[in-house]
Amino acid sequence: MAKRQIPVIVLAGFLGSGKTTLLNHLLRHSGGTRIGAVVNDFGKIEVDAMSVAGQVDSMVSLGNGCLCCAVDASELDGFLDRLARPAARIDVIVIEASGLAEPQEIIRMILASDNDSVVYGGLVEVVDGAEFSATRERHPELDRHVGIADLVVLNKADRIGDETRESLLETLAGLAPGTPVVPVSHGRIDPEMLFDRKPREDHLEAVRQLSFEDLLLADDEHDREHDHGHEHDHGEHCGEGCDHSGHLHSGYESVEFRSDTPMNPRRLMDFLDGRPEGLYRMKGFVHFGVAGHRDKFTLHAVGDFLRFYRSPWARSEERVTQMVMIGRGIDAGALKAGLEGCRDTAPEETEEHSMWGVLRYAQD
After folding, report:
1. Which residues contact 97 (CB under 8 A, 6 or more apart)?
2. Do the Cβ atoms of 19 and 133 come closer than 8 Å?
3. pLDDT, tens digit, for every residue of 73-119?
4. Buried b (16+ CB within 10 A) or exposed e, 1-35
5. Residue 327: beta bridge partners?
6. What is the CA 45 to chain-centroid distance, rounded?
7. Distance in angstroms (rounded) separating the CA atoms of residues 73 and 182
8. What local confidence, expressed as pLDDT, does residue 337 receive?
9. What is the tens place of the pLDDT at every residue in 240-289?
10. Where's the CobW C-terminal domain (predicted)?
């Protein structure tokens, strides 16, 4: 069976778009997930606030278990090897491309890597909503970058009006048909749009030392409460007109699906190939009843990026399909109905070659 692989996510965007702000946000809200961040330099990464626990060559260890390393393109493969080594215990790697880097080249390097411990996890293109027209005029290649992205983040959405934002969303949808576009402010995207967050390993300990991550989260909560208090001097609770636009989950919808009946591979791939706009993220695991393929297929999708990871079911694990879908403006009923139509009522009659579509996205 395939061994566990670490997804490598490419974070791209032109100078000033807010890539580093978004990366800092991910590092500050990593929860129990250990992030390996590959950056061009440490100048803008908030390593001081995160507490530098140690430094080896050009790699910095952050107090919450994450790692940062500064590299140029020629060193990338070597640092992927270092971040992927078992001792680092990294869960996901995020590469912040320089403002003028060609994301295709970075993707090519990841795909060409001989390291079987890493797997390409998708391209996230960050777009400056406030300076989009000017950036596009200076860098016409922006259109191409958006077109190959698996997820587009429209940053600085708070600095543009509703009409401008809707116009930009329409433009981006034209540049990348079917690719999800997520409007955010200050790079505050929900980390679960990009990767699964793990629970803290020490969550069962009754008493433990307060970590720097705890302090940072406490500071964030304090800042939000402080700002919220100024906005609501008239009362303690949110009432009509209360603005929650700054909250991570604001505007996102989550749809859950479960099936005790095995899924038909061809119908499921038809569903996945035609998933609707606004569906940013899918995760979960799938049970197929096809002979020779009754393993657990873990599903990971970000925008257009799709991957299955095959592994054996645990002895005590129930053979079911469970999925969570996250998006904006999605039709929950239609999604559930579509997946319900993928159930395989006669899996023993489903031929093995019907799995070819799934196996095309399965990591060896």
Report:
1. 10, 11, 12, 13, 19, 103, 106
2. no
3. 557 778 888 888 888 888 889 888 877 678 888 888 888 888 889 98
4. eeeebbbbbbbbbbebbbbbbbbbbbbbbbbebbb
5. 253, 279
6. 19
7. 28
8. 94
9. 344 433 333 445 678 899 999 999 999 999 999 988 877 878 888 999 98
10. 252-343
Asked whether the beta carbons of 9 and 92 are under 8 A apart, the reply is: yes
250: left (phi over 0), alpha (psi -120 to 50) or beta: beta
Amino acid at 182: V
Handedness of CA 85, 48, 42, 108 (dihedral sign): positive
Surface-to-core class of residue 149, CB atoms within 10 Å of its CB (0-12 exposed, 13-18 middle, 19+ buried): buried
Grade residue 216 by pLDDT with cuts at 50, 70 and 90.
Answer: very low
Handedness of CA 80, 82, 83, 87 (dihedral sign): positive
| The model scores a pTM over 0.85 | no
Asked whether 304 and 150 are in contact (CB, 8 A), the reply is: yes
The distance from CA 219 to its chain's CA centroid, rounded to whole angstroms, is 24
Asked if 203 and 214 touch (Cβ cutoff 8 Å), the reply is no
Q: Chain-centre distance of CA 163, in angstroms? A: 28
Q: What are phi and psi of 265, to 5 degrees?
A: -60, -40
Three-state secondary structure call for residue 161:
coil
